[in-house]
Amino acid sequence: MENQTKEDLTRRDFLIASGIGLVSLAVYFFTLAPTVTGEDSGELITAAYAFGVCHPPGYPLWCLLGKLFSFLPFGNVALRINFMSAFFGSFSAALLYLIARNFHSGALPSASASLAFAFSNRFWSQSVAAEVYTLNIFFLLLCILLLQTWAKERKTRWLCLASLAFGFGLANHYMLLLLTAPALLGYVLITEPRLILKGRLLLICLACLLPGLLVYAYLPLAASGDPPLNWGDPSTLKSFLTHIGRFQYRSLELAEKIAPSTKLLFIGHYLVELWSQFSPYVLLIALWGATIAFRNRRLAVLTYGIFFFNSIALISILHFSFEGDNLERVQEYYLPAYAMVAIWISLALEKVLEKTRSEKLWKIPGYLALFAVAFLPLMSNLEENDRSDDYIAYDYNKAILESLEKDAIYIPGGDYSSFPAIYLQAVEGIRRDVILGNITGYLSPDYMKYAASIPGYDGKLSGKELETFVIRNSDRPVYYNQKSDIPGRGKLVVVPQGLVFRVLPETPSPEAAPKWNCDNALRTASRFKASNEVVVSILTDFHVKKGEYYFSIGDEAKGAEEWEKASEISRHTKEILNNVGCGYAEHGLYEQAEEKFKESIRIYPGYRLGFKNLAKLFEDTGRLKEAVSVYETLIELEPEAEEYSAKLKQLASGLQTERIAEQLELISRNPDEPSAWNNLGNIYAEEHNYDKAIAAYEKALELNPDYALPHLNLSRVYENLEEAEKASYHRQRYEMLK
Fold first, then answer.
1. Half-sphere exposure at residue 648, Cβ-oriented, CA atoms within 13 angstroms
2. Which of 1, 32, 100, 667 registers the highest number of CB atoms within 10 A of its CB?
3. Which helix (H) or strand (E) holds 652?
C-alpha cells in the first residue's frame, strides 16, 4: 500500500496554515470592495440580508451565512458580506496547505503553493466581493482534507464528516461540487476498494449528506415571507424543483448545438486562462509537479480527476457559443482545477528543495524560487483585483435612483444596473418610493401589483403589452435604463435624462426636456482596467447615454464622439456595437451604423441580431441585393425560421421591380438598342410575366431580325407555356442565326 504522507500533520503545520490564512485574509481585506459591486453582488447581498431568494439554484447556505456576517460590527452591510468571501477564501488557502502537506510536500513548498493559489487571479477576484465561489472551494478542500485523514486512520467518523462537508457544499453551488464527485469517489475506492461492499457504511455516508440538503428548505420558507428579492418564487413544489434544478438556464447551457471546433476553442481559452492565473513562470513549475503526481495513484486520481472534470468535462457538457459573455460565465467553474494545479506546484517545489539542500551554492536559488512562486501572483494580479475603491456600480446606480421623480417606475437593464439598484433600495433604504420594474429578468411583483391597480387593466396583458399599457395609463413617471428595452418606441416619446430615459405617451412637458448632469457621477472609474466586465458595461453605458443627450439636442458631432468612445471601450462586445449601430441608424447615420453592425458580426460570425439589423439597414437604404445576401446568410444560420424565407421572397420581388425600372431607364436613353429589349424580356421571364417577356423579345427582333438570342429566349418561354409549335419555330431560327 502507498504511503499517504511522509509524516502526520503537527501543531507546527496548523500554525503555518493559520499564518497562511491570516496573510491571505489581510491582503483580501485591504483589497476588499467597500460596497456593492456590479456582478451578482447586489442580488446576493439583498437575498442574504432580507432572507430572500437569489438566482437558481438559490444558494441557501450562502444566504444564511451571509445573514450572519451582516451582523459584524464594522462597515456597511455590503462590506460585511463581501468580507465573508475573504474569510472563506483565506480559510481555503489554509486548508490547501494542509492538503499539500498530506501529499508528500514539505512545509515551505506547501506554504508557497497555497499562497500562490490565494493570490491567483480568478480566486482572488472571488475573495474581495460578495460571491459564492470561495465558500464552494472551502467545502471541497475541507472534504479532501477529511478524506485524507480517513485514509490515514481508517476511522469511519472521518468518512462521515467528509460526506457531511460534501453535503453542505451541495447546499451552495452543487453543480461545481458534483463535478468533483467522480475524483473524490475514485480516491476513496483506490484507498479501500472493498468499501463498495460495505452497504451499511455507504448508507451512513448517504445519510450524512442530508443535513446539507435540508438547507434547501430555506428557499420555500424565505419565499413565503414575500421578501424584496424572490427569484422564481419557489414557494410551491413545482417552482421549488424548477429553481433548484436551474431549469431557467437549460436553454442557455444545453439547448444550443455546438460544433466540436467550438469545444476546442473553449479548451484553448481555458489553457490561456490557466497560463495567466499564477503567472506563466509558476505554471511551468506546475507542469513538472503534474508528472510527479502521476506516480502516486491516489494523488493522480484526485488531482487529475478534479482537474479534468472541472475543465474539459465541463466544457463538453455546456453548449455555449464561443463569445465574450459565455467565456465569462464559465471562468469561476475552473477554480477547483486551479486548486489542483496548486498541489502540483507544491510537489515540484519540494523536488526543487530536495535537489538544492545538499548543495550550498544552490540553497539560495531554491529558497528564492519558493518566494517567487508565492509572491509573483501577488504582484502580477494586485492591480486587477484591488477593489478597495470600487464605487463604480454604487455611484452609477445611486445617481440613477436619485435622479428619478418621486414615485417613479424604473425599469433597470442588465445585472450591473438591476442588482445594485435592489441592494440600494432594499438594504440601504434609498428611494423606496420608486417601483423597480425588473430585477430578475421578469416584471417584478411590485410592478405587476401596481399595473393591476390601474383603471382599465383587464388582467390579460403581459410582457411588452403590459409595459405599454402602464406607460400610457400610469399616473407615475416611467423611466428605462436601456432604450432598447422600451416597448413600441416609435409610438412613444423617449427623452434622454441623464443616465436614464423618460418615456411618455405624448409630447413631453418642459420638466421632461433632455438633460445631462452626470459628468461627475463616477468617482473612481478611470482607475479600473477595461478588462473588468462591470467597468466596461458601466463606462460604455455612460458614454452611450451622453451621446443620446447630444443627439437629442441636435449636436450630432458630439453625440457621435461619445458613441465612438463607447465603441472603443466595448470593442469586443457584439451587443454594444450592435446597439450603437442601431442608434446611428435611428439618426440617419447609415455608414456608421453599417460599420458597427459589421464589427459586431466580425466578433461573432453567428450573431443573428447583427445580421438582421444589417439586412434592415440595406433594405431601408434601397440596397436590396445586399439585403438579399444577408437574409440568405440568416437562412443558413437559422433554417427553421420562416420569417427569413418570407422576407427573402419579398425582397426578391422588390429587386425585380428595381431591375425592371433600371432596364426601362436604359431603354429610354437608347430605345433602338435590341439587346436592351432582350435583357428586359429576361427580367420579365424570371418572374414568369411571360406576356411582357414575349413583347420585349419581339421588340428586339423588330429592331434586328437577325438577332439570335431573342429566338432562343422565346423558345424557352413557349416551352414553359407548352406551345410546342412556336417553341420549335424559334429554336430553328436560333440555330440558323447563331
1. 15
2. 100
3. helix 642-669
Q: What are residue 10's phi and psi, to 5 degrees?
A: -115, 175
DSSP one-letter string for 383-410: HHH--TT--HHHHHHHHHHHHSPTT-EE
Parallel, antiparallel or unpaired: strands 409-411 and 435-436: parallel
Is the alpha carbon torsion for 184, 161, 130, 378 positive or negative?
negative
Q: What is the DSSP string of 581-614?
A: HHHHHHTT-HHHHHHHHHHHHHH-TT-HHHHHHH
Residues 264 and 542: their CA atoms lie apart, in Å, by 36
73-87, 228-242, 263-277, 647-661: which has the minimum mean pLDDT?
A: 647-661
Contacts of 165 (CB under 8 A, 6+ apart): 139, 142, 143, 146
Direct distance between the N- and C-terminal alpha carbons of the chain, in angstroms, rounded to an integer: 94
- The pLDDT tens digits for 556-587 are 999 999 999 999 988 888 888 998 999 999 88
Q: What whole-number distance in Å separates Cα of residue 560 and Cα of residue 563?
A: 5
Helix residue ranges, H only, 387-509:
392-403, 415-426, 445-453, 463-473
Supply the pLDDT for residue 7. Answer: 63
CA dihedral (607, 608, 614, 617) in degrees, to 10, reads -150
Q: Is the model's pLDDT at 325 over the cut of 80? A: no
Measure Cα distances from 23 to 27, 83, 120, 335, 518 in Å. Answer: 6, 15, 14, 20, 40
Give the number of other CB atoms < 10 A from CB of residue 68: 12
**Residues 6+ away with beta carbon under 8 Å from 623:** none
Q: Band of the pLDDT at 660, cuts 50, 70, 90? A: confident
The amino acid that residue 438 corresponds to is: N
Residues 461-470: tens digit of each pLDDT:
888 889 999 9
The three-state secondary structure class of 53 is strand
Cis peptide before 57 (omega within 30 of 0): yes
Say if CB 252 and CB 301 are below 8 A apart.
Answer: no
Distances from the Cα of 375 to the Cα of 27, 93, 272, 338, 509, angstroms: 12, 14, 21, 17, 60
CA 68 – CA 708 distance, rounded (Å): 93
In single-letter form, the type of residue at position 301 comes to: V
Distance (Å, rounded) from C-alpha 592 to C-alpha 583? 10
Q: Could you count the other beta carbons within 10 Å of the beta carbon of residue 430?
A: 15
Distant-in-sequence contacts of 367-370, Cβ < 8 A, 24+ apart:
367/108, 369/285, 370/108, 370/109, 370/112
> Over the range 111-149, which residues count as b (16 or more CB within 10 Å of their CB) and which as e?
bbbbbbbbbbbbbbbbbbbbbbbbbbbbbbbbbbbbbbb
DSSP element (H, E) containing 495: strand 493-497
Confidence (pTM): 0.84
**Do residues 339 and 176 touch, judged by C-beta distance below 8 A?**
no
Residue 1 is which amino acid? Answer: M
The three cell numbers of residue 127 are: 475573495
Q: Which domains does the chain have, with CATH numbers?
A: 11-385 (no CATH), 525-653 (1.25.40.10), 670-737 (1.25.40.10)
Are 525 and 539 spatial neighbours (Cβ–Cβ below 8 Å)? yes
Digit-coded pLDDT (tens) for 203-241: 999 999 999 999 999 999 999 998 999 998 999 999 999
CB 88 within 8 A of CB 349: no
Q: Across-strand partners of 410? A: 436, 479
Q: How many CB atoms lie within 10 A of CB 666?
A: 15
